[in-house]
Amino acid sequence: MTTSPRKPRAFDPGKLEHHSDEFTALKEAESGSAKPATSKRDIAASARPGKASSTRKPRSIENRAEIEILPDEAVDEAYSDDIEKLTPPPPPPSPRKRFSFAKLAAGAFSALIAMAAGLWIDSFVREMFSRNDILGWVALGLAATGLLAVLAIVIREVWAISRLKQIEELRQRGEEAKRLDDLKKARRVAIDIAGLFVARPDTAHGRAQLGEHGEDIMDGSDLIHLVERDLLAPLDARAREMVMNSAKRVSVVTAVSPRALVDVGYVLYENMRLIRAISEHYGGRPGTLGFWRLASRVISHLAATGAIALGDGLMQQIIGHGVASRLSARLGEGVVNGLLTARVGISAIDVCRPLKFDAEKRPGVSDFISALTRPGGKKEPENRS
C-alpha cells in the first residue's frame, strides 16, 4: 500500500504579517511607546485587523520609591558610634625611649670600677717588674690575656644584643609592611628573615619555596603570610615540641621530687634553659647580658598577657589539676607546674619569633594540657569494633 507524499504547504505571507504585528505590539507595550496591554491575549487581539477588543486602562504608579544619597553630615548621631566601631583602630604608637638616670649611674659606676681595676693591675704589674723581670712579664702576659678575653666577651655580648634587636625590628617592620600592604617593604623583610636562617639546613626547603613563589606575590600582606607558612611554620612546630618536652620534664620532676626546694630550683633552671633554646631556635644567640635582657622581656610579656589568658588557661589548669589529683596530689602539682612552664615557653615564642602570628595558629595552653594529663603524653587508643 503506497501513500501519496504530503503536498508542501503554500507560504502564507498573511500569517507572517500577523505574527510580526503581534510581536511589534508586544515590544511597544514593554517600551512604553504604546498603550500597555494587560495580557498577551489583549495584545494579540489588538493586533488582529477587524476585531475590536476592550482593554483595561493602565494604572499608573504614583507612589514611587526614590533613592537619595545623603552626605556624611546628615547621618543620625545615634548611629555614629556604631559606624566608628566598624573602623579598625590605628596601630598603637611605639613607646619613646626616655632618658634614664639609673642607666647613667650604672654606666658611670661601671666605668669608675673599670678604671680602678686598671689602676690596680698597672700598679701590680709595675710591682712585679720591680721585684723580678720574669714575674713582671708573666703578670703582664696574664693581664693582656685577661683584657683580650674581656674584650671578646664584650664584643660577643654587643653582637648578641644587636641580634636580638634585629629580630625585634624585623617583627616591627613585618607588621608595618602587613598593615600598609607595601610589597617593597615586605620583600625586604622576607629577604632579611631568609638571611637570618641561611645557615640552618632545616630551613632549606622553606627558603627554596619562598624563592620560588615569592616573585608571584603582588601584595605585601600575602608575602608576609607566605613567609609564615613556608619558612616559620616548620620552626613553630619544632618550638611547640621543645615547649612540650620541657613541660613534661618539669611535671615529672615535680611529681617525684621529695623537697619543694628541688622543685623551685629545677623549674627555674628549666625555664631559663627553655628561653635560651627558643631564642637560638628562632635565630637569636643571646649571651649572658642578652639572655637577662631577653628573660626580662619574656617575664614582662607573661605578666602583660597573664590577665588575658586567665579565662582560657586558668580553668584548664584547674581541670587538669583536678583530674590528676585523683591519682596523686604531687602529680596534680606537677601538671600545674608543667602548664606554667608551657606558658613561659609560649611567651618566649611570642618574643623571639621574627613575625607575629597571623597566618599560622598561635600556640595555647590547650595544645599541651592533653599530653600532660595522660600517662606518657600518649593519645587514648581508638576503640575498634
Describe the fold and architecture.
- The protein has 385 residues and is mostly helical.
- 69% of the residues lie in helices and 0% in strands.
- It has helices at residues 13-31, 40-47, 80-86, 101-131, 133-180, 183-196, 204-213, 220-256, 260-281, 288-325, 329-352, 366-373.
- Helix 5 (133-180) packs across helix 10 (288-325), helix 8 (220-256) packs antiparallel against helix 9 and helix 8 (220-256) packs antiparallel against helix 11 (329-352).
- It is globular, with a radius of gyration of 40 Å.
- The two termini are 75 Å apart.
> Total number of β-strand segments?
0
Report the sheet with the most strands, covering strand number, pairing sense and barrel closure.
Answer: none
Strand residue percentage: under 5%
Order of helices and strands: HHHHHHHHHHHH
- Radius of gyration equals 40 Å
Low-confidence stretches: 33-40, 49-53, 72-76, 82-94, 307-321, 379-385
Q: How would you sum up the global shape?
A: globular
Give me the number of helical elements: 12
Report the end-to-end length measured between terminal Cα atoms. Answer: 75 Å
Q: Average pLDDT across residues?
A: 73
The SS-based structural class is mainly alpha
The level of helicity is 55-70%
Task: From the structure above, extract its key features.
single chain, 385 residues, mainly alpha, 12 helices, globular, disordered C terminus
